[in-house]
């Protein structure tokens, strides 16, 4: 796409954060024109003859808008709600410790945990169709009354009912297989350069993830169909195992074992795209599972043996409990690996680097809540007017009851602890905030006392971010405990009975709590759906809701193939390509990134050729690089990677941060007292603290005092404009293109 001619010496390329801002907001201009890219991700400039900018002369403003890459349509936003557990487990694999000795183990365990989510997905749908509908409802005249869409199966042989209803989970598997088959990259033009950065962050968006995603997809599809097969075969074997049942069960077990072995060999499954041998193996496993499903359904349809008339589908509760036992074992194994391989330097990672465990356990908990709510709502619909207590006792499997009880328990305990942390830490946070306010506004009149308290409270609230990581770990541990307690369902125990016997709380109160927890999960799901819809219709609303999607889909799909596609696979190569083009056209480039945009630019700088990096400067503001990413993703963002970014741009790097910002922060040093002039380390000159707000006294030209900006961008701020002027001056203003092969 063509645009305004390039005639200035320096191009300031701005990259927004997770707010999904439009080009006019990023450029702080009224009229813009797109010069490259498309509607999902594109580059924009000010139209000619509209020079309403405060930047230095000779600087052309350009914006890269990537907000629609992780979001897109409302339909995709709704998909993200239901794919949230897959996304969380996928993020966990990137949160492994920096110790390279833990990489293979963490990858294997996270991929197995991701596989259990696919199994749970199939079992939940099978629980509705095969257990509640095919096994229970079709045998109940009360359930069938007035339901002509079900009564046509009533009175049919059990094998026919199960065989027909097995089509529903098979179709669901095929649907999610089809949805996940969309490639992460859209155009060949966004392929990354050939050279590989020396840091892991520089590989994000550079290596071709499609072969790995294709292998994982084949494995998960194979396991999904094998899970459906095993559910049918266990029900069929309840009255006695025939030779055909044994043969089909053994074959299913072989397919499942082969899939697990493939996931537990990272050097094999992570091989380059040029090695197609594993692709053929995983495709063969997928094909074998599909063919096996056809055989199992046909066998169930024609098998003449009588069926065991139990309360629930034979073998279903045992399979479900076995899955939760496997998840508990894997979570314990992941925690052991993280503790053993943690960075033992003091303060290196929060709470022994258990971030991956917290995120993985949260994903497992959310998936369990989704599955339990699906089965509970279906049971509630089929049970008609059955009282809540009776419905819980006779409806879904007991394991789902324990899941809802555990989810409610984890949420309540975490909220109680969070409230205590807020109260206990408030005095210390306010004391530190008061010292900052006293330093920033030493000569303030007495009438601005209320405004100073507002500033103090804003700083105190921003400092609570560091407390969220321990709370997330606490919730993750409680969520892991939930999967462990679900095995009590095998013993025929209900949470109400256990709690009444051991704690003394009345069983009716616990039953009410479980019913309340079920509706709470439904309310949370509905809230996420509404939030997703409004997030992409209302920009201010998305500044809060869209953060989760934008951060989660930054990382490539390396654990779960059904997770949302990674937008960094397009955004980073596209930025690299555009910056290289501008430099080779004879221009220096000033990169300015706000919030998550600074993370995109950091990964981009690590991919730039040296001759391009010598004509690039970097300005970050509201950056979470050190405060969040270095703590949560220590294997990808560490001190060495951050210093390499500085060296690649010749330390033409300024990072602006505010004490009122709950997300962004300093990168190398807080610099609360000004750094010594004799400091030889260029990293100490990167960070510059912005006083926020600019003042507490209402100016004569306004009726209200300057606003508290917090994490919001403010390109018109004097310190931002001054940093732009400084970096433009340090770029030198040369217009000749670099010579390839050596830095200029």
Strand order of the largest sheet: 2-3-4-1-5-6-7-8
Mean model confidence by pLDDT: 80
Main sheet summary: 8 strands, mixed
- Alpha carbon gyration radius: 29 Å
| Count of helical regions | 27
Low-confidence spans: 1-7, 49-54, 184-196, 388-393, 734-744
The number of strands is 8
Terminal CA distance: 30 Å
Please state the overall shape, judged from the principal axes of the Cα atoms. globular
Alpha-beta classification: alpha/beta
Percent helix among the residues? 55-70%
In percent, how much strand structure appears in the residues?
Answer: 5-15%
Region (Disordered): 688-717
Protein name: Integral membrane protein
Keywords: Membrane, Transmembrane, Transmembrane helix
Transmembrane segments: 77-97, 109-130, 158-177, 219-238, 244-269, 281-301, 321-339, 351-372, 399-424, 468-492, 512-536
Describe this structure in words.
The protein is of the alpha/beta class. It has helices at 23-27, 74-82, 84-92, 103-136, 141-144, 148-151, 158-165, 167-180, 210-236, 243-263, 266-269, 277-302, 316-340, 355-383, 388-394, 398-440, 449-462, 465-485, 495-502, 507-535, 539-552, 568-584, 596-605, 610-613, 625-632, 639-648, 718-731; strands spanning 10-15, 32-37, 42-46, 59-65, 588-594, 616-621, 653-658, 687-690. An 8-stranded mixed beta sheet has the order 2-3-4-1-5-6-7-8, with helices on both faces. Strand 2 (32-37) and strand 3 form a beta hairpin. The longest helix has 43 residues, at 398-440. The protein is globular, with a radius of gyration of 29 Å. The two termini are 30 Å apart. Residues 1-7, 49-54, 184-196, 388-393 and 734-744 have low confidence and may be disordered.
